[in-house]
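Sat 14:20. Reprocessing the chain from the morning session after the first attempt stalled halfway. Input below, unchanged.
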Amino acid sequence: MAADKTRIAEQFIQSIPHARALGMSIEEIGDGYARIAMPYDPRLIGDPQTGVIHGGAVSALMDTCGGACVMSHPDAPGGTATIDLRIDYMRAARPGQTILAEARCTHITRTVAFVRATAFDDDRENPVATATGAFTVEQPR
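Finished this time. Tokens:
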């Protein structure tokens, strides 16, 4: 069952056009946890003077990672959608570095999953951003 959910989550991520366009790839997933990488890409620069990746790309990464961790949770029978996502940006990601997001489902009910996520580059001690979110728990039809 866990392997099926991993495969489904990977297919889901690859079916999202913006996830493909941003180069996202799942590094690890399972039982309410996901880690997704987004490589540095000059097309995603928000400030040409500094080479810093746009916050919208970081937001999309954290949202996608949150959804993937919900889909991998043993008590989540199906898909998910974002209800609410609050992101606190701590600092700019360093130009040239891959940004990673890690998300963990901290609580799940029959209809809502609650998630905490962190985005970071090579400096794991100083996050780029943190997030809390609520996601739907889709029931089987």
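The mean pLDDT is 91.
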